[in-house]
Amino acid sequence: MLESLKIKNFVLIPELDISFNDGMSVITGETGSGKSILLSAISMLLGAKADKSEIREGEDKAELEAVFYTKRKSLLNYLESKDIEAEDGKIIIRRIIKSNGRSSYSVNGTSITLAEGFEIGRLLVDITSQNSSMDLKKSDMQRLLIDCDEDIEHVLYEYQESYKELIDLEKSQKELKDKIARLEEDRSYLEFSLNELDKADLKIGEDDEIKERLKIAQNAESLVDNLTEAKNALDSSSRSLSAALSYLDKAKTKDDSLIEYYDRLESCSIEADDILSSISAKISSYSFDEYEMEELNSRLALLQRIRKKYGGSIEEAIKRRDEIKIALELSDNSFEELGKIEKAIERQSSLAMELALKLSKKRQKRAENLSKDITKSLQDLSMEGSRFIIRIEKTDLGPYGLDKITFLIKANKGEKESLLENAASGGELSRIMLAIKSNLHRSDDTETLIFDEIDTGISGHAASNVASVLKTISKNTQIIAITHLAQIARCADSHILVKKREEKGRTISALSYISGEARIKEIARLLSGDDSEISIAHAASLIG
Length: 544
Hints:
Elements: E1 2-10, E2 13-19, E3 24-29, H1 35-45, E4 61-69, H2 73-81, E5 90-98, E6 104-107, E7 110-111, H3 114-124, E8 125-128, H4 130-135, H5 139-147, H6 150-200, H7 206-218, H8 220-251, H9 259-285, H10 290-309, H11 314-380, E9 387-398, E10 401-410, E11 418-419, H12 420-423, H13 426-440, E12 448-452, H14 460-473, E13 478-482, H15 486-489, E14 494-503, E15 506-513, H16 516-528, H17 533-543
Parallel strand pairs: 3-13, 3-14, 8-12, 12-13
Antiparallel strand pairs: 1-2, 1-4, 4-5, 5-6, 6-7, 9-10, 10-11, 14-15
Helix pairs in contact: 6-11, 7-10, 8-9, 11-13, 13-14, 16-17
């Protein structure tokens, strides 16, 4: 429950420190006195977006703080998952809104995000306002009201996990099909290219080798002439070396120091003979026939075409060949992979449908019970001839199952049932929302309910019945109601009055608990707009 609220420099409230009691509390005040400011501050503490325009004029920041106590397991578990300690269930939420945009938001001293604050707020407090009554016309809100049941939420979670996996599989299937389609469109070209590259039997550096061979072939005659002259000269030198060796051989027998010269000259002779032999072989290699030249030129032309077509070099062409091979292999493997995905989709679709049907069955049962209970509550709220109907129709599988949930109302006996969005007035919507909340709180463990002008569009006997329902709920749940009706205010256990006044030349909103004569006067004002003796007497009789 909400224990206390502190506000500093927020809109018209310079400073406020107020405690809240359990049971039923009402907040009243003239129109424009600042009741909505209080609700706005609470909403911001519970995750609503902040606006620096709500900082009090002349100040650089607004400070908000609320203290709650909770036993709600789902909330305590959520806090634990975020490493937020809540000793004895105490929760202190602080929010500072700065004019420079550097705001802060924390729970028990731990910084939180806006999304986390919203989730904590959702589990702490249920706020019903005129806007939420209008939201009741929306299909999403109608589904949420049906689904706020622990058993349904469990099955819904299972279903959504299964549905998400199904969607992921279908996404993978589409992506793979698109990929296969693209590959199949290019298959003929890829296969032709691979065949062309394979037939080319590419080798890195081959084109440079061919160019070198053609260069030699073009200069073969000159080369042969030069090498022939070199061979003849070397042949003559070889004979001279042989003769010299013969003379040294005889001389070294008489002087051992000549052995070194003999050995060196012998090495030169052997090297000269080897070079002579190599030159003779090289001269023979410069014999190019016309057919061989044509083949070299044809091969070089092919390599130049391949190089130009596939990346600018033989290396790039080889790389492209390998990529095409992989692409074609992937295409072949993709059909097998697609088959596996399609089987998985079939299995997952079956599981999702099974869970969706299970979810639908539970919703149907809850809808039947809620329809009866809400109808009874509406009759208790002076809508005697009305009947509330929750219709569940089957549709395609979606994020929330296969149910289309629609709220209908039959406002009077003998009339045809109509969509809630078409049939209900503002006052009826307020009572329908209250009837729903009065039934939901039995299966929900929310500890604080805030009603902002739930009495819109009603008066008289209907207002008394609304007050009675709120009083009943407050026996087990903290109720805070902002109201303009005396019938509701008189039932409160605690009464807070909001007044606007001037202080130091500035307008402020002030809140205070009232009782005794002050409360009687406020009830009188709510009854007739004044505090005449008749109004005061009537108010006193209402309070008893």
